[in-house]
Design goal:
With 82 residues, the protein is an alpha+beta fold. It contains four helices and three strands; from the N terminus they run βββαααα. Helix 2 packs across helix 3.
């Protein structure tokens, strides 16, 4: 990612877009990723946090990391108690 110019979440397309100095664009469909790796609302919430607060870390996780292992490590399940 040494030629990366910008990384931002595009709310209109629901994609994290990476723009490179050679003019190329990599677009990550966040809904497709969530449907593939997130099994519940807690995991979706963790991914949403990254999308809105650190889209570069989200892109790095999806392109180079292991999203399932990340979600297993960071997700706290808090069931509803009566």
């Amino acid at each position: 990612m040494k030629n990366l110019i910008s990384c931002e979440f595009n709310m209109d397309t629901v994609c994290v877009e990476l723009r490179y100095s050679d003019g190329s664009i990599c677009s990550i469909d966040c809904i497709a990723v969530e449907n593939k790796v997130a099994d519940n609302r807690f995991e979706r919430s963790e991914l949403d946090y990254l999308i809105y607060n650190d889209p570069l870390a989200y892109a790095d996780l999806i392109l180079n990391g292991d999203p399932e292992a990340y979600l297993n490590a960071v997700t706290e399940y808090k069931p509803y108690e009566n």
